[in-house]
Amino acid sequence: MSEQYVSTTEKASRGVRQRLAETDQPLFLYGAFLLLIIGFTVANPLFLTAGNLLNILNQTALVTIMAAGVALVIITGEIDLSVGSVLALSGVSAALFMNNFGQNWFLGALVGILVGASVGFINGILTARLLIPSFLVTLGMLSIARGIALIMTGTAPVLVTNATFWSVFAETPFLGIPAPIVWTIVVIIIVWVLLHFSVFGRRIFATGGNLDAAKFSGINTRAVKISVFLISGALAGLAGVIVAARGHAIRPDAAAGIELDVLAAVILGGTSLFGGKGKIYGVILGSLIIGILNNGLVLMGIDPSIQLTIKGALVIIAVAFGRR
Amino acid sequence: MINQNGPVEPLLSLRDIVMRFGSVQALRGADFDLLPGEVHGLLGQNGAGKSTLIKVIAGVYKPTSGTFTIDGVEQQYSSPRASRDAGISVVYQSLSLIPSLTVAQNLFLGIEPTTLGIVNTRALNSRASEFLELHKLPLRPEQLVSSLTFAYRQLCEIGKALVKDARILILDEPTSSLSKTEEPILFDAVREATAKGIGVIYVSHRLSEVFELTDRVTVFRDGNNAGVFNTADVTIPQLVEVIVGEKLAKSVSTGGTSLSVRPPIAADASVALELSNISNDVVKGVNLSIRRGEIVGLIGSIGSGRTELLESIFGVRKLKSGTIRCDGRDVVIRRPQDAIGRGIKLVPEDRHSFGLVVDHDIESNTAMAMLPLLRSFNFLFKSAESKAFATKIVTDLKVKAPSTSTKVNKLSGGNQQKIAIGKWLGSDTKVLLLDEPTAGVDVGARADIYKIIIDLADQGTAVLVCSSDYDELLQLCSRFAFISDGAIRASADRSQVHEEKDLHQILEASREELPHV
């Protein structure tokens, strides 16, 4: 057998097909993306207009922001089902804080994000320290956070009257881009650097790729897991702040069931549920597919209950394909 | 033994088997014969075609061309199930037993004797006990498989094959997890099976046991058989030459006749690692010191606490008492991070579970253990430096891989092990702990790994190596420590030991707590 050391020529000559085969992104993702756009455009010419596309991005912002955090959790081999409830709890906390402690938009947003981060931290501690499966921890937290949000508000919506708060998180465009999309871009850039260019990102991949090997290599896998849960919670908190700003009010039952969209986006984006694999552009693409699907189905006038059914089926199909 | 005089009809016969995967030809017209009642060794380096051949026989792959007969009847099957129906049973390294069930329940899984549809446990156990007696398998029917040691689990696995009337038994690296003292248990079971006319194909990297057990051997090289020999007519060096196919052979494991005995380390060399009376739930009061540049062999059977001792030094297991000194200073090691920070590194026995992230690429794996050193601005990952390090490891350790972005699970066992060792070489290594460094590693790569270990020692690293391959220890070590029940019971210098047999004797003697050699 001839010795084959690293050679640049060999690297360059690897075919496109082989690269596609090696990529973690299922090919069907790109196909599904195109098919959806073509299908919806044929069904309703309004679909492919600049106005509607911007609308889709704006609608998808929440899902994308939370999907970025949940993707980190899933890459470490855990899962976070609590993000929808954390969104509501954080949004409600921000609004109540501003209403009761002097209408400071910045402190309000900070409280919202910190509440989200704290819930994430608790998820992380329960999972990484007490070794309770994250599936159960965050399923319980889904209920707990929602319950607390309902208790805090007496089940009534909380008004948000701070105009700066509306403006920063929802209404004032930056360079012509709506604020929620700007926040999404900021989050994506941060998570992208974190995941693909930082040492922490390497730890996330190693922890999810093989927990024991990561431990045996001197990686503090508990700290890694707690951190990703904390980030996921904080991002759900930011999403809650945006929801509160956008609606000038937040209901304690806001975003119920959104965790399905978030999980669908992450999994459609090629993130392995078994951990150790995932790319941030996959998360963006996955969220866009979910956004387009939501928007297109509405434009086609399809009943919301059928929409729900389709999305659920999509998650299962995505997992089935992604597992190859 | 086979009857050499009369013509014996082969049980299994493969002729001109070609197996193509896309453009890769894994088998290029291979022939193989198995006679009834023989143990037939199958040797070759990783990638030589052994496992492909096994998978063709087991029905996992359908050969591209060639003929395949059992008892002279041509077979066309292409599913593992059809292969089992034809009487072929493969005992894989990863066992198929259910640990929470008893031996009897495992043996008769799916074919339990029932009364009115309910499993009749008494009948099950008595039938199992008859069966175990018939095949002379030293197991009890009511034992839980989870309570058995690895060797006995393998016996149970073989028993399971025999229950299903297997006539051809394929053992793939059966001793890779067994200690020397456990091997005879397995070998007896194999001999017992052949006495009943069953043909056994025995795949192994360990030449000494192939010599002990087999009647004939077939050597594979580059997808073809490089020769079939009567075991009695060849010597280990001859076989190694056929396996490797080059003159590489002389630098490789050659049975008892090892090349150069490593000289003892000068008494004034400084002590790199000193264990004083360390204890926890498994390790009991171990005292051991290793000098810079010294390679010490740790000898003990499975369950002796040898792996646990290494893990305790590395911080995977907590110590209850005792002190560890590294380079003359007391160190507190609570976690692997602490050990790595002091330059103490462990290459675990099971590289797939503990050493590597096999579905990540080479570069990710080599970076994993030295992330603190690859950090800029306390945050960003130094990608270029990581790539340079990975390339250096691939080049220096002669890893056969197309590039550093090749996934580790695409590499052979030997090359994976080189990565598992190489990942530690990015920072100063004062103490290297090696647990079975050549398990599942082919002959060629084995020589490379020995050289890596010896080079490290020559640069001043203290090495503690634990291995069931005593020949390997004889080649590497200048001193031996014998462990059983978590304590070091004896020690010996290389000069006091001449062959593998001596090591066995010392280990046995030390168990009976006889005075030290």
Give a brief rundown of this model:
Chain A has 324 residues and is mainly alpha-helical. Chain A has helices spanning 8-12, 16-22, 27-43, 50-75, 83-100, 105-128, 134-153, 163-171, 179-197, 199-209, 211-216, 221-247, 258-268, 280-299, 304-322; strands spanning 158-159, 249-250. Chain A has a domain at 50-255.
What would you say this structure looks like, in words?
The complex is a heterodimer of chains A (324) and B (517). Chain A has 324 residues and is an all-alpha fold. Chain A has a domain at 50-255. Chain A is built from 15 helices and two strands. Chain A has helices at 8-12, 16-22, 27-43, 50-75, 83-100, 105-128, 134-153, 163-171, 179-197, 199-209, 211-216, 221-247, 258-268, 280-299, 304-322, and strands at 158-159, 249-250. Chain A starts with 7 loop residues before the first helix and ends with a helix. Residues 1-14 of chain A have low confidence and may be disordered. Chain B is an alpha/beta fold and 517 residues long. Chain B folds into two domains: 12-250, P-loop containing nucleotide triphosphate hydrolases (Rossmann fold), CATH 3.40.50.300; 271-513, 3-Layer(aba) Sandwich (Rossmann fold). Helix content of chain B is 31%, strand content 24%. Chain B contains 17 helices and 24 strands. In chain B, the strands form six sheets. Chain B has a six-stranded mixed β-sheet, sandwiched between helices. In chain B, a hairpin with a 2-residue loop joins strand 1 (12-21) and strand 2. Chains A and B meet through helix 10 and helix 11 of A and helix 10, helix 11, helix 12, strand 20 and helix 13 of B.
Give a quick set of tags describing it.
heterodimer; A: 324 residues; mainly alpha; 1% strand; globular; disordered N terminus; B: 517 residues; alpha/beta; Rossmann fold; six-stranded mixed β-sheet; 17 helices
